[in-house]
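Example 3.2
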Amino acid sequence: MKAVAIRLKPDEDLKKSLWNFAREKNIQAGFIITAIGSLKQAKIRFANQQASTLLIDKFEILSLNGTIATTGVHLHIAIADSQGKTIGGHLDDGCIIYTTAEIVIGTTDAFTFLRTIDKQTGYKELEIIDKMQNN
């Protein structure tokens, strides 16, 4: 396993920046180790909803989890508002950095992560290619 780190600056889009970073660093199988920072706008899709919800306020990033690769990212986020109210869900484009986002990404050469349509769910889901099995 290796680790790479990125710091996002004000007005950057969290999801788009991470996907661009994955392509720039040629990350084939990555995962979020840790992430903290703040947002001035969040766009999150809540469980079992078709559309995302746009939230305009200042938020602290409490947690960011998921997979990242050149083929796509699938991330969930937990954020807190100024009163400490916590909310979370599926990270969408439109989560805009307020002051910073400090993110450490783990990578492995043992796998390749793909995003392919799953016949059962109808969504692009994680397909794991085990490189060690193919040797």
